[in-house]
Design goal:
By secondary structure, the protein is an alpha+beta fold. 40% of the residues lie in helices and 16% in strands. The chain contains 26 helices and 21 strands. The strands form five sheets. Strands 1, 2, 3, 4, 5 and 6 form a six-stranded mixed beta sheet that branches. It has a five-stranded mixed beta sheet with strand order 8-7-11-9-10, with helices on one face. A hairpin with a 5-residue loop joins strand 5 and strand 6 (351-358). The longest helix is centred in the N-terminal third of the chain and has 21 residues, at 189-209. 42% of the residues are buried.
Length: 725
């Protein structure tokens, strides 16, 4: 396949974009540099493109860099036969068109000199400064002689680490790969496929994450042509057969211009044809394509407010497709992208997709980090040093920070290469918030395990659970954009550790690598004793059971003929009083479903055998029995202070949890009448205690003391299901 055949993006390339004449550049390179008083002819078009974005740029350093690059590469040729200098010139032109500043272009001209010529890195440093030297070093490949098969993954590791300190390193690498892909046709098919595969798995996701859409879309088309030639040819034919498809969009664009002009909104409306891969995706999604499916409309305005004004006018004058609306201005994408997305339908059913953005947003959407200039320029706030010695860079996105963190823990090149591809394959990011108000950037599909390791690193080995939006959640819970996550750690970190099941829930390489490393170092697992018996085990105190409370009836009970099965609690029976003018009653029972204690508001119901069952007034059983026509009996507490209550403690399993809970209960002067510990489930344990308190007024303090036990996240009064009588 020729380089031209593998270059399907020509139809969608911006009008007026200059293409490099390799033959002319070759002749200029052979003739050598121009006189000192003018730029060499070979980089005249580079200077022109650079001045279009930076009118006041000093071009003398470009001339100096070109002279060094041309002289050092002289006599070298590419596989296509052109002088080698045409390659750094082409890479530099790509970056100049995107608006890169002078330092980036200088490094781009020199990016292969240290790797392929006698020029040394020290020479670049001394002649062009530390910034240019750093960029050239960042994109210089590692030698296969030294690294063997690991040369490629280790080179990418080196570039990514350098990118973490200066994003311009990856900008040069992306432009370098784009030009190589444009001229890949001279290589053997198997080598084309290998390079295209790495481009698809690594470079295209990096271009997307850095927001350089202009490079990403062309790389996608070039890879598409090589790896899927039949699909590419079918798509190329489809586009050729619909050469007039743009007319339908142009007609809608003219309607837009009229509507916006009448509304007094200054806007430029453009038709943007889709590139090959985009057309292919739309065809797979929608089947047969209409004319409006081959492109989108772009509306450019001057400020953010005008974006929303345009949106309002279009939604007023046309029928909006609500499901297509997205606001990336209020909530920008993780790669700096901002725009309003919508779609409108015409009476004939044709749907036109619309992008609304400012000129500045459009520049960033096309060029991403390249359009941000030099974030380290003297006098800029971004040039300050970070606390860890690295330069503080506001353009460094969260995904890159995560990548830099986990790659340090992956010395094996194959594991790094596999993890890198898996990480970059997750092309959407969410933001979740920590309990302290900070934010975490995570890939879509991340779980509480990923959040724990993103926040705490290896300290997350002691994670025992999490709360998501205030509610307890399992570690496998998948997080959504905007969730608040509170990671809960065990106090005794040395006795805690991840389980192999965590690997099933981890989506980020950082979490998977940390968990795998811990499991490899601890093949026997965490030395954690069982948090509780595997089967319910009733524990009874030595003290004899006493009455829960004494209740005095105010009215005659009568002789009921129905019962309350939920109140059967033999330990809570008391001899009943004799009411004046009434008859003797067997006694009073406290309902087990709500365990009332003084000073709870209570009510009673007569049951079989002459007993009265006492419920808390808010107990669901009261509502159900009242609905069945059961008459409530007014009751009140006597002055007896001692009471019995059932409490449920929800906790995470950990060593000594049961001992710590019983110690906290005893410290408050309560006696354990009985206790049940349910089998642990997903590291959570449920304890149910029936307690004898010397004074009902001490119940709130007892519950607080139990909640303060590490690992306990909730203590509540028992609420057992209550059936109707």
């Amino acid at each position: 396949m020729s380089a031209e055949a593998a270059n399907p993006g020509a139809h969608s390339r911006r009008r007026g974009r200059p293409r490099i004449d390799l033959r002319r550049l070759g002749r200029a390179a052979v003739l050598g540099p121009a006189a000192r008083d003018r730029l060499p002819d070979a980089i005249g078009h580079v200077a022109e493109a650079h001045r279009a974005h930076h009118p006041d740029a000093d071009l003398s350093v470009l001339r100096k860099a070109y002279v060094l690059a041309e002289s050092s590469h002289r006599g070298q040729f590419r596989k296509s036969g052109e002088p080698y200098i045409t390659h750094p010139l082409a890479v530099t032109l790509i970056l100049a068109e995107l608006g890169a500043e002078t330092t980036t272009l200088t490094a781009s001209l020199l990016h292969d000199t240290v790797e392929d010529t006698e020029v040394t890195l020290d020479q670049v440093h001394s002649e062009f400064g530390a910034e240019v030297g750093y960029l050239v070093d960042g994109v210089t490949k590692l030698e296969k002689v030294d690294y063997g098969a690991a040369a490629e993954p280790e080179t990418f590791r080196k570039m990514l680490v350098a990118t973490g300190n200066d994003v311009r390193v990856m900008s040069i690498k992306l432009a370098d790969r784009l030009h190589n892909m444009r001229t890949l046709g001279v290589m053997r098919p198997e080598k084309q496929a290998r390079i295209a595969g790495v481009t698809r798995d690594v470079l295209i996701p990096l271009a997307e994450r850095l927001g350089v859409q202009a490079l990403k879309t062309e790389l996608e088309d070039l890879v598409f042509a090589i790896l899927h030639p039949q699909e590419y040819e079918r798509t190329r034919t489809l586009i050729a057969d619909n050469a007039t498809a743009g007319d339908a969009l142009e007609a809608i664009a003219e309607e837009f211009r009229t509507v916006l002009k009448d509304a007094g909104i200054a806007a430029e409306v453009l038709v943007r044809p889709r590139h090959f891969v985009s057309v292919h995706r739309v065809r797979r999604k929608r089947g047969e394509l209409r004319g409006t499916d081959f492109g989108r409309l772009l509306v450019l305005v001057s400020d953010d407010a005008d974006c929303y004004a345009v949106l309002g006018e279009l939604h007023t004058c046309f029928t909006p497709v609500i499901s297509e609306f997205k606001d990336f201005i209020a909530a920008p994408k993780f790669n700096l992208y901002q725009s309003l997305h919508t779609a409108v339908a015409r009476p004939d059913g044709a749907v036109a997709e619309v992008l609304i953005r400012t000129q500045r947003m459009h520049t960033v959407a096309e060029a991403g980090v390249v359009a941000l200039g030099n974030p380290y320029a003297p006098g800029e706030t971004t040039g300050e040093s970070a606390a860890d010695g690295e330069r503080a860079d506001p353009t460094r996105p969260g995904w890159l920070c995560r990548l830099l963190t986990w790659q340090r823990a992956t010395p094996d090149p194959d594991a790094f290469w596999t993890s890198l591809r898996a990480d970059l394959a997750q092309d959407r990011e969410i933001t979740v918030f920590r309990a302290d108000g900070g934010a975490l950037g995570l890939p879509a599909g991340a779980t509480c395990v990923d959040a724990a390791y993103a926040q705490y690193g290896t300290q997350a080995h002691a994670c025992i659970g999490a709360r998501v939006n205030g509610r307890l959640a399992t570690l496998s819970t998948v997080l959504r954009d905007g969730d608040t996550v509170h990671v809960l750690l065990a106090q005794d970190a040395a006795a805690s550790g991840p389980s192999p099941e965590w690997l099933d829930h981890a989506r980020t390489p950082a979490a998977r690598i940390a968990i795998s490393s811990w499991l490899d170092a601890h093949p026997e697992g965490a030395k954690i004793p069982a948090a509780a018996p595997r089967r319910p085990a009733p524990l009874t105190a030595d003290r004899p059971a006493a009455a829960n409370a004494v209740v005095e009836l105010l009215d005659d009970i009568g002789d009921p003929d129905s019962g309350d099965p939920d109140s059967e609690n033999p330990d809570s029976r008391n001899p009943g009083p004799r009411n004046p003018g009434g008859r003797a009653h067997a006694g009073v029972r406290l309902a087990g479903c709500c365990t009332p204690v003084p000073p709870d508001a209570v009510t009673g119901f007569a049951v079989r055998g002459g007993f009265v069952t006492v419920h808390r007034e808010e107990c669901p059983a009261v509502t159900r029995m009242t609905a069945l026509g059961r008459a409530p009996l007014p009751v009140r507490w006597k002055d007896a202070a001692e009471c019995r209550v059932t409490l449920v403690a929800e906790s995470f399993g950990r060593p000594r949890l049961l001992a710590d809970l019983t110690e906290a209960i005893a410290a408050e002067g309560a006696a354990i009448v009985s206790a049940t510990v349910e089998p642990p489930a997903q590291q959570r344990v449920r304890h149910t205690y029936t307690l004898q308190l010397p004074d009902a007024a001490g119940l709130p303090a007892l519950m607080r003391a139990m909640r303060d036990v590490p690992g306990v996240y909730d203590v509540s009064r028992a609420r057992h299901p209550a059936a109707t009588g």
